[in-house]
Amino acid sequence: MVNASLLDSVLTLQSQGLMQGTSGNASVRHGNGYVITPSGMPISDMQANSMVEMDMQGKAASAGKPSSEWRFHHDIYQAKPEISAVIHTHSMFATTIACLRKDIPPFHYMIAVAGGDTIRCADYALFGTQALSDHALEALKDSRACLLANHGMIAVGKTLQQAIEVAVEVETLCEQYWRALQIGEPRLLSPQEMQEVFEQFKGYGSWDK
Q1: 93, 98, 149, 167: most buried by Cβ count inside 10 Å?
Q2: Cα(104)–Cα(179) distance, rounded to whole angstroms?
């Protein structure tokens, strides 16, 4: 059931253009560990039994090779016990902004879906390394999303559905921010205005912290 849900989530992200080919990965907390997408396998070839079970010591507990990015999935679950799903994509607009190494500032109130008034861009590190995981955790402090410099984005959630919703919203925000930058420098919302947004979000669907 967990494997099938993870596969469905990846297929949903593919259908929305956030994942393609072998790029990106996703995981869901399960038991005393988590289940993650396999390494180097095109999404079109994945089946429920392709998913790899991992324990919290970083070891595979089932057949298959886990995504090369398993380290930041592992570390996020260790650091954020409230989080049950992690999604990483190389989606077009998030990756475009990440290649500029820009944070996403409060140009639009929906930035609040990530839990703060800015979506940070983590420092660059080689994919699959502990350094990348360390940078990602720093950027994810008090946040449900971050960009990875010259790489892509990470979105997390209390459920797979929430993580998908965050990933889709962050990609939309990155596209809007990119478009706004073509015209000029966006006017940003103030800390007080963003605090009003957080208050309004209380009790509002899955965005309620």
Answers
A1: 167
A2: 13
Active site residue 171: no
- Rounded to whole angstroms, the Cα distance separating 163 from 156 reads 5
> Tokens for 15?
């259908």
Domain assignment of residue 119, given as a range: 2-207
CATH number at residue 144: 3.40.225.10
- Over its length of 209 residues, how does the chain's per-residue pLDDT go in tens digits? 899 999 999 999 999 999 999 999 999 999 999 999 999 999 999 999 999 999 999 999 898 999 999 999 999 999 999 999 999 999 999 999 999 999 999 999 999 999 999 999 999 999 999 999 999 999 999 999 999 999 999 999 999 999 999 999 999 999 999 999 999 999 999 999 999 999 998 876 665 55
Q: Which of 53, 69, 165, 171 is catalytic?
A: 69
- Measure the CA–CA gap between 161 and 5, rounded to whole angstroms: 10
